[in-house]
Design a protein that fits this description.
By secondary structure, the protein is mainly α. It has helices at about 1-5, 15-35, 55-75, 95-115, 135-150, 165-180, and strands at about 125-130, 130-135, 155, 160-165. The strands form two sheets. The protein has a two-stranded antiparallel sheet with strand order 1-2. The chain has a two-stranded antiparallel ribbon with strand order 3-4. It is globular. The protein starts with a helix and ends in a 13-residue tail after the last helix.
Length: about 190
């Protein structure tokens, strides 16, 4: 992973940079697979539709994160269709996708790993159809409750010198973007210190 990261500065095109990102993502998912019970093991990230239970959890968790980010964007002056990483589009909220790149590995994936390792989510919480898998109603309820609870967890913020919830961290990221756009301070994405 570190070797791939070092290649970022040498990328000569967007295609090369995206290739490095793809390889990093594959390594990340391989590592993630090592942290979960065998019954949730997955070979690759699949979506539209998810082909196994773990991919179904990732897809559902990412969707929850996108909607949470959108609700925080709406509390600011930002336009959710104007983005800086993903191709802007009037047909989708691409800024949510940009900000989710920060919060999926920080929030969604650890939550999923915790839910399957503590057996709060089990294979019985999924509906298996031919060619795809999705969370059952009971599984969605368990996931949503855990997601909402984690959004309320707080961490001591180094600059603000007070506790901040995960939900508020999302809004703070929006404020940092606004400050960057108006030329106040350069944008520096959230890096975990806890």
């Amino acid at each position: 992973m570190q070797k791939l990261r070092e290649g970022i500065g040498n990328a000569k095109s967007v295609a090369q940079l995206m290739g490095l990102e793809g390889m990093m993502r594959q390594n990340y998912y391989r590592t993630l697979d090592e942290l979960i019970p065998k019954e949730f093991s997955f070979m690759e990230r699949t979506k539209r539709p998810p082909k196994d239970a773990f991919n179904a959890l990732i897809s559902f968790g990412n969707t929850m994160m996108y909607t949470t980010i959108l609700s925080e964007i709406y509390k600011t002056q930002l336009n959710p269709t104007i983005s800086y990483l993903h191709e802007p589009s009037q047909k989708r909220f691409s800024l949510c996708l940009d900000l989710a790149e920060i919060f999926k590995p920080l929030f969604v994936n650890p939550l999923i790993v915790a839910l399957v390792n503590t057996k709060q989510i089990q294979l019985e919480h999924f509906d298996f159809e031919e060619g795809f898998v999705y969370l059952s109603e009971k599984g969605r309820k368990i996931f949503i409750q855990a997601f909402d609870k984690k959004l309320k967890d707080s961490i001591q913020h180094r600059q603000l010198k007070r506790k901040v919830t995960y939900r508020y961290f999302i809004r703070l990221e929006c404020y940092k973007l606004i400050k960057h756009v108006i030329g106040d301070t350069s944008y520096k994405p959230l890096k975990v210190w806890w």
